Amino acid sequence: MSDAPHILTLKIDDQDVSAVEGQTILAVARENGIAVPTLCFLKGLSPVGACRLCLVEIKGVPKLLPACVTRAAEGMEVTTDSPRLREYRRTILELLFAERNHVCSICVSNNNCELQSLARAQGLTHVRVPYRHPRLGVDATHSRFSADHNRCILCARCVRVCDEIEGAHTWDIMGRGIDCRVITDMNQPWGQSDTCTSCGKCVHVCPTGTLTEKGVAAAEMKKRQQFLPYLTAMREERE
Amino acid sequence: MTPEELRELAARRREELQEFKYRLNVCLAAGCQSCHGDSVYKALKAEVESRKLEGVQVRGVGCLSLCAEGPLVQVEPDNLLYQRVRAEDAPELIESMYGKPLKRLACPTDAPFFAAQKQIVLENSGRIDPESLEDYLAADGYEGLMRALTEMTPAEVIAEMTTSGLRGRGGGGFPTGLKWSTVAKSKGAKKFVICNGDEGDPGAFMDRSVLESDPHRVIEGMIIAGYAVGASHGYAYIRAEYPLAVKRIQNAIKQATKVGLLGEGICGTGFGFTIEVRLGAGAFVCGEETALIASIEGKRGQPRPRPPFPAESGLWGYPTLINNVETFANVPPILRNGGAWFAGMGTEKSKGTKVFALAGRVKNTGLIEVPMGITLRKIIFDIGGGIPDGKKFKAVQTGGPSGGCIPEEHLDMPVDYDSLAKVGSIMGSGGMIVMDETSCMVDVAKYFMEFCKSESCGKCVPCRAGTDQMHGLLSKICAGEATMDDLALLEHLCEVVKNTSLCGLGQTAPNPVLSTLRYFRHEYLAHIQEKRCPAGVCKIKAAAEVHA
């Protein structure tokens, strides 16, 4: 048998595309300039398929499947955009906006927020489900960073980057369902965490204004995620 | 031990059992225990001892089926069943063995409740001592395993399972033979077998009863599965809320290990298999296979997207076979009697029998096993004895929080995987809750949604936030504060959550709402438009009160 990669051909949105065996639909789509919305996905972190925004239709498959974890297959016919998918994506975004207190105008991440830009891209003009207005705290005990749980969408990027890239596993998730919350260590204040290395990776992978640097004002918090592809590339090279 | 030695053990126990002229089988399963079955057991035992009776055995057994009338005592050799027995009845009961049956406590065993049942999974339930390996052996226990190990290749075992047509009893109904063959074909340095005993549907106690009444049967099924797919280690994942089931399965594992039915070189063959018990920590979602696997691995019990399916990449990344308790319990009789025998029962696409936990507004609540294809009407009105207090039947809920409510008009439909799906419900693991006219269907839907909301793991957005929003809207409807727009939004959320959630919990969470909307929409409309609850369950403030 040869070591040459097995090449597949498939169709995404009626466009003929090629893929290497093992590649996800999302990777192939992005390679070909086909936009698929994602929120929990971040290249360099393990995909979890949790936000459900990248769901796509696959001919012959009754269920919608997340593009971020579904592997491309020979002859597959994928639809990434349809009225139904658009409606579902909008509803999921509405559910997120109503879940916690996402008040863009006073948010440090205003105009630099992935949730906000996705909502714009999906044409979300209003939220139909009732706002829950939960009373959630802000953890400002860390000397350089703060965590505003009102903005958290539980994408678990912070949990993954801390565990998989930094190797500290300071972040985790506690509770169930609507009561889930990201926590540091055993639910201690962030500033008292024994494991946190203060590397700031969690802050920069956070898609919203939840994890931020202290001292930034509204709309000033720009996230810098360049370290992630760099580190991933370096590690892959070493393997 | 070799098969010959095991069979000798079985023969010896059969002889021992024959030494007793009379036998009193006292149900010590959870239902009867909760109404002091153990004190009846102790009283009978003390009575026999104080009278120095010979040839009389008092034996604690598993579920005797009619939980509603417990504690139950069965008397052999006449096979009389006594109901609602109390410790004080012991002397009279003992005397009745030598004289006339005790009419006062007699339970009619020719009633449809017993006559319409067909027991395969529960064949030993109430007939053997669940804590005795010898009792199980004497009832042809481990014969299926011995046949598999000594006469069949793994491929032949799988072929037998495929012939049987058995489908997964955990709810999904996936063909068991196909699942086994997939795991057998998967490549891995190791393979695992997992028994899913994380039964968590409200009102369901099928797996619990099987584990409490006949634990060796589940172990035998797991070993056969291990042999068939090429696994040498198994995990029995049982929820910690079932302490008796956990105790009995641990005891059974110890006994089986002692006689070499577990461990290296089972029955003198080259095949080895071990089983470890893992306790569930109270999360309903851990009944979902990928969440259950994460839980065994010591991680947070959260599902992950499939594919890859556990058959390909399961526990610690190895190919893993995961089946439900009842599925494993069906395996030994299939191996003993052949797949064709099993396929002779049931309907075209749903073979064999199904155990149901019959509960709710029905006279005979209890654990029943019926052939597939029986009608719901027969289950509820013949076996169940109908609705108590002269009330009118309204709906039957199958499949727990993932299922739906089925109205009167569909009661003559056969009970099988496909028919139940057609009317908007599911077979599920076997919970069956009967409701009468005093139940408000919106309130029922709200109850199940509250369950799903609090059991959602919170990983994916539609299930986490969607179940909360749907519960909010249902509460609003129940309070008489909702508008037609709210109803439209509820229906929309049902569709989104059903189609976009990550795992089965979210994908099926809207089912109770969708099925009640389908058959009882008028009740929703009465709450919204007329501000009244037809069943009188929901407290709706009168308009005057609202304005006051």
Topology (elements, then pairings):
The complex is a heterodimer of chains A (about 240) and B (about 550).
Chain A: E1 7-12, E2 15-20, H1 25-31, E3 55-58, E4 65-66, E5 77-79, H2 83-99, H3 114-121, E6 138-139, E7 145-148, H4 157-166, E8 171-174, E9 181-184, H5 201-205, E10 211-213, H6 227-238
Chain B: H1 3-19, E1 22-27, H2 30-34, H3 37-50, E2 56-61, E3 73-76, E4 80-82, H4 90-98, E5 106-107, H5 112-115, H6 133-138, H7 143-151, H8 154-164, H9 176-185, E6 192-197, H10 206-213, H11 215-229, E7 233-239, H12 243-258, E8 274-280, H13 289-296, E9 320-324, H14 325-337, H15 339-343, E10 353-360, E11 366-371, H16 376-383, E12 393-398, E13 404-407, H17 417-422, E14 431-436, H18 441-455, H19 461-478, H20 484-500, H21 504-508, H22 511-529, H23 543-547
Parallel strand pairs in B: 1-2, 6-7, 6-9, 7-8, 10-14
Antiparallel strand pairs in B: 1-3, 3-4, 4-5, 10-11, 12-13, 12-14
Helix pairs in contact in B: 3-4, 7-11, 7-14, 8-9, 8-11, 10-11, 10-12, 11-14, 18-19, 18-22, 19-20, 20-22
How would you explain this protein's 3D organization?
- The complex is a heterodimer of chains A (about 240) and B (about 550).
- Chain A is an alpha+beta fold and about 240 residues long.
- Chain A is about 25% helix and about 15% strand.
- Chain A has two domains: about 5-80, Roll (Ubiquitin-like (UB roll)); about 85-240, Alpha-Beta Plaits (2-Layer Sandwich), CATH 3.30.70.20.
- Chain A has six helices and ten strands.
- The longest helix of chain A has 17 residues, at about 85-100.
- Chain A is globular and about 55 Å long.
- The two termini of chain A are about 25 Å apart.
- The mean pLDDT of chain A is about 95.
- Chain B folds into four domains: about 20-110, Glutaredoxin (3-Layer(aba) Sandwich); about 140-340, Rossmann fold (3-Layer(aba) Sandwich), CATH 3.40.50; about 355-435, Ubiquitin-like (UB roll) (Roll), CATH 3.10.20; about 440-545, de novo design (two linked rop proteins) (Up-down Bundle).
- Chain B is globular and about 70 Å long.
- The longest helix of chain B is centred in the last third of the chain and has 19 residues, at about 510-530.
- Chain B has helices spanning about 5-20, 30-35, 35-50, 90-100, 110-115, 135-140, 145-150, 155-165, 175-185, 205-215, 215-230, 245-260, 290-295, 325-335, 340-345, 375-385, 415-420, 440-455, 460-480, 485-500, 505-510, 510-530, 545; strands spanning about 20-25, 55-60, 75, 80, 105, 190-195, 235-240, 275-280, 320-325, 355-360, 365-370, 395-400, 405, 430-435.
- Helix content of chain B is about 45%, strand content about 15%.
- Chain B is of the alpha/beta class and about 550 residues long.
- Chain B has a five-stranded mixed beta sheet with strand order 2-1-3-4-5, covered by helices on one side. In chain B, strands 11-10-14-12-13 form a five-stranded mixed beta sheet, sandwiched between helices.
- The interface between A and B is medium-sized, with 36 and 31 residues.
